[in-house]
Amino acid sequence: MKLAKPLLFGAALALSAQVSAECPQTMPAAEPVIPDGARASEETMLSAQAVVNAYIAEGDAFLACRDLHPMLHNRLRSKLVKVATAYNRELDTYLDRSELVAGR
Fold first, then answer.
1. Dihedral (C-alpha) 50, 89, 35, 57: value to the nearest 10 degrees?
2. Torsion sign (Cα): 42, 55, 6, 73
3. Consecutive 10-residue averages of pLDDT for the chain (104 residues)
4. What pTM, to 2 d.p., does this model score?
5. At what angle do helices 42-64 and 4-18 cross, to 10 degrees?
6. What CA–CA distance (Å, rounded) separates 102 from 88?
7. Residue ranges of the alpha helices (H) in the chain?
8. Which long-range contacts (CB under 8 A, 24 or more apart) does 41-48 make?
9. 103 by DSSP, 3-state: which?
């Protein structure tokens, strides 16, 4: 289960590599909703992971094909990192809770 974080970033990289050559017109509009890891089910966490991966891939695709001012590029990249960090924080909470329930 501790492999979930590397898998999140690996999946995001894989998804961004598969994005078509066509450049997205805008950054993803709305940040995904991150579930509360203290209460979420495994299904909810897995679903959120897929949504976060897609959000990051779409944002990466937008940034990869735009010639933006470095400050704007960094600001938008920061939004993507913020979402990934928030998901990983809740994933840690979920995993800690799951380990306690399983008696590990």
1. -30
2. negative
3. 57 52 84 96 97 96 94 96 98 88 61
4. 0.74
5. 40
6. 20
7. 4-18, 42-64, 70-102
8. 42/94, 42/98, 45/90, 45/91, 45/94, 48/87, 48/90
9. coil
